[in-house]
Amino acid sequence: MDIEKIITENQGTIVDVRSYGEFLGGNVAGSINIPLNEIPERIEELKKLKAPLILCCASGNRSGQAQHFLSQHGLECYNGGSWLNVNYYKSKSN
């Protein structure tokens, strides 16, 4: 799946897995913040979001961990990498 296309066409939900403080320092417009350490206890909430989930963080490491975990629980999700990259794609959306 083309992550850039999903983002620019607003096909899913962008989930930022950085800490609350990092998220407040800058984030993708319309994204939601669920820190990586809260993912396991918030999985039911994540299942209710518009799929696919595009996961992002500072570098792509934490979002990769979240993607691995959520995929094992049957959620359609992709590692978008750095929130800055996701933000760039989002800025190109209509």
What is the structural class?
A: alpha/beta
Mean pLDDT: 96
Largest sheet: 4 strands, parallel
Count of extended strands: 4
**Alpha plus pi helix count:** 5
Helical fraction: 25-40%
Proportion of β residues? 15-25%
What Rg is obtained from the alpha carbons, in whole angstroms? Answer: 12 Å
Strand line-up across the major sheet: 2-1-3-4
Distance between the termini: 19 Å
- Morphology call: globular
Helix and strand string, N-terminal first?
HEHEHEHEH
Query: Which blocks of ≥5 consecutive residues have pLDDT under 50?
Result: none
Please provide a brief summary of the model.
The chain is α/β, with parallel strands linked by helices and 94 residues long. Helices cover 39% and strands 18% of the residues. Helix 4 links the parallel strand 3 and strand 4.
Structural account:
Helix content is 39%, strand content 18%. With 94 residues, the chain is of the alpha/beta class. It has a four-stranded parallel sheet. α4 links the parallel β3 and β4. The longest helix has 12 residues. It is globular. The mean pLDDT is 96.
List keywords for this structure.
4-stranded parallel sheet, 18% strand, 4 strands, 94 residues
List the helices and strands and how they pair.
Layout: H1 3-8, E1 13-16, H2 20-24, E2 32-33, H3 43-47, E3 53-57, H4 61-72, E4 77-82, H5 83-91
Parallel strand pairs: 1-2, 1-3, 3-4
